[in-house]
Design goal:
By secondary structure, the chain is mostly helical. The protein has five helices and no strands. The chain is globular. The C terminus is likely disordered.
Length: 147
């Protein structure tokens, strides 16, 4: 069942409000949170809306706001990586460094996806695709294992 526009807007506002409380309205984190939520809601569709996952995510963010435990550290580290990814995307990088960073962010996305699946949450991912590695054959001889 698809969600109405009112439900989607309400879920966005609730996630944003609880996220702000989780990061205690700190300056870089609140802007990063807003950017990620906006991106997720703009790129998502009404068919992707899952009220149960949103409620679980709100509960997770509430727990992060209440006490300085593991939930709070996860939220802070997520926002720190998202902020760093935004900074890195805006700067020129050598192709080799860019490939390594894209690969790292891709692995981070896979970790967030696994976290979402195991916890039943809907934390947004970076959606970074890894760059394909070029096969370098610089005159190296292939090793044969046969006799």
């Amino acid at each position: 069942m698809t969600a109405t526009a009112k439900e989607i807007v309400q879920s966005y506002r609730r996630l944003y409000r609880h996220g702000l409380q989780a990061v205690q309205y700190s300056s870089p984190a609140r802007h990063t949170l807003k950017d990620r939520l906006e991106q997720a809601y703009r790129n998502g569709s009404a068919e992707d809306f899952n009220a149960q996952k949103i409620e679980t995510t709100i509960e997770f963010l509430s727990n992060a706001a209440k006490e300085r435990g593991i939930a709070n550290r996860i939220v802070k580290n997520l926002l720190r990586v998202w902020w760093w990814e935004k900074i890195q995307r805006s700067q020129y990088q050598k192709p080799k460094v860019s490939r390594i960073r894209r690969q790292a962010f891709h692995h981070f996305d896979m970790t967030v996806t696994a976290f979402n699946k195991s916890m039943g949450t809907c934390l947004p991912t970076l959606q970074v695709e890894p760059m394909k590695m070029k096969a370098h054959n610089r005159g190296a001889k292939s090793l044969s294992l046969g006799g």
